[in-house]
Amino acid sequence: MPNDPQRQNPQPGRDLQQAQPVLPGQRREPQAPQHSQRQPQRYAEARAHRVMDRAADAVWHEVRDFPALAAWHPGIASSTAHPGNPHVRDLVTTDGIRLTEALHSVDDTLMTLEYGFVAHPFPLTDYRARMEVRPEGDSRCSVTWTATFRPAEGDGAALAAQFEAGVFAVGLEALGARGRG
Hints:
- The protein contains 2 helices and 7 strands; from the N terminus they run E-H-E-E-E-E-E-E-H.
- The chain has 181 residues and is α+β, with helices and mostly antiparallel strands.
- Strands 1-7-6-5-4-3-2 form a 7-stranded antiparallel sheet.
């Protein structure tokens, strides 16, 4: 039978076990393949939300200017459009960390922006962030800043807390204070 699994040839480097002699009268019991017991890596999430005494359009105008993050975020010393591509920004934080981020989408109607890391020093992969601005009447709005990522180790709770408190909340506080006073 051509589809009989007992008659198929093993894959090179796979399904082959170290040869052990079988004595007459003995039978070799089939062994289950060895699989890694590693659990699938889960995503961690960081989230911050703030209601601001500013019109949504004014806040969205600043958020949507992707290369100009340093204009309103106190933790960013410089932010510039990547040479030749305004959808990529190079950042330097106030403590000297260098990052490159790429803009994935902008929706002016929904006032949402999504971006991800291109180059960074953090122990994570698959970082994807989103900012949403929502009107709360004519002169107020709410802004939600979230990110999901796969931590290199553990559940990512400590790293998520760092992003929430040290990046998102600080940035949203500063963004809310602009245009007042």
